[in-house]
Amino acid sequence: MQLITDEILTQVITPRLPETHKGNYGRVLVIGGSKLYGGAGILSASAALLTGAGLITLASDTVNRNALHARYPEIMFLDWTDLTTLSSLIKQANVIVIGPGLGLDTDAQKLLQLTLTTVNAQQTLIIDGSALTLLATGDFKTNCPAQLVLTPHQEEWHRLSGLKISEQNPIANQTALATKFPKQTILVLKQHRTEIYSHQDIFQNTSGTAAMATGGMGDTLTGIIAALIAQFKDPLPATLAAVYLHGLAGQLVGATHYVALPSTLIERLPELMVQYSQKHSK
Ligand SMILES: NC(=O)C1=CN([C@@H]2O[C@H](COP(=O)(O)OP(=O)(O)OC[C@H]3O[C@@H](n4cnc5c(N)ncnc54)[C@H](OP(=O)(O)O)[C@@H]3O)[C@@H](O)[C@H]2O)[C@@H](O)CC1
Ligand SMILES: Nc1ncnc2c1ncn2[C@@H]1O[C@H](COP(=O)(O)OP(=O)(O)O)[C@@H](O)[C@H]1O
Ligand SMILES: [Mg+2]
Fold it and tell me: Which of 155, 192, 196, 201 is most buried when burial is the number of CB atoms within 10 A of its CB?
């Protein structure tokens, strides 16, 4: 198991080149945020914005539109019942996140089905939260051609892999990943010290704090992963950097706050990114 340290940030986060525009920093589409869990979609999309993705759209229940725009008008919004527009936005995106606060009802199932059947091999699909639970219990294809990044907590991984939490160990986890998911899949198994699995390698995060143990923290991680993949392309190093950066921002907030609110954590991301981009080494 390889330990992830802040070296991954200096490797992955490069300074921006002067002659660039928003289109060079990637299009991220977040599909999430039901009536009950609106905050989850907003946190994911907001995290992608503050991690530097060029263009971000949140497809969500319409009750969430005003709350999103009161916070970040930079993010575009689509009513997720408009499946025709959603389908074309899925095709245009570089990275799609599905699941934070999606819910488990039949509309959520249709959105997951549409996404899995629309994405192509040039895109990254990050599957989190309710979409993982749906994937575990329903009849969905998991052999979709996109680069997959799965971000379960241990109970979501139990549902997906069949491994009880007490049975989850590196060998069992990597075997389950290899048997059940396409070879390009990355597994981010979230916990106190999050583990990241590819079919070849296993990594463990060294950043983070118990101040991060609060609702919405995983939703936030999805946006950070999406934005780093959208900007820096190579999905495995970008995912490792995202997990480390999330924990580091949590530690910064946690140093002075008993609980690190996800909405506070994301505001620390732009300063951390500029700091590490200046140290960039390749
Ligand atoms: N503001 C919002 O809109 C928010 C919206 N959210 C959205 O809600 C949806 C449901 O997601 P969910 O994670 O809350 O519920 P679920 O899938 O039932 O899992 C919980 C079960 O798993 C167990 N468990 C075991 N190990 C664990 C671990 N390491 N980490 C965490 N749990 C662990 C845990 O055990 P227990 O707490 O009983 O010890 C419990 O039995 C999803 O779409 C999400 O995006 C949330 O993000 C909150 C903020
Ligand atoms: N004690 C802890 N130490 C470090 N990180 C933690 C701790 N507790 C939770 N986290 C992090 O918070 C996130 C929780 O994700 P998740 O359970 O999906 O939250 P939610 O669905 O509420 O957004 C993960 O990234 C996890 O690593
Ligand atoms: Mg979650």
Answer: 196
The domain in which residue 198 lies consists of 2-14+22-276
Residue 98 sits in a domain of what CATH number?
3.40.1190.20
Mutational pocket test of ligand 2: of 191, 222, 258, the residue with most ligand atoms within 8 Å of the beta carbon: 191
Q: Is 223 in the pocket of ligand 1 (CB under 6 A)?
A: no
Instruction: Name which residue sits closest to atom 35 of ligand 1, judged by CA.
Output: 155
Assigned domain for 71 exists:
yes
Whether residue 281 is contained in a domain is answered as no
pLDDT digits (tens, 9 = 90+) for 70-114: 999 999 999 999 999 999 999 999 999 999 999 999 999 999 999
- What is the domain count for the chain? 1
pTM, to two decimals = 0.98
* Predicted-complex ipTM score: 0.98
Find out whether the beta carbon of 195 lies less than 6 Å from any atom of ligand 1: no
CA distance 240 to 105: 32
Q: pLDDT tens, 107-165?
A: 999 999 999 999 999 999 999 999 999 999 887 877 789 999 999 999 999 999 999 99
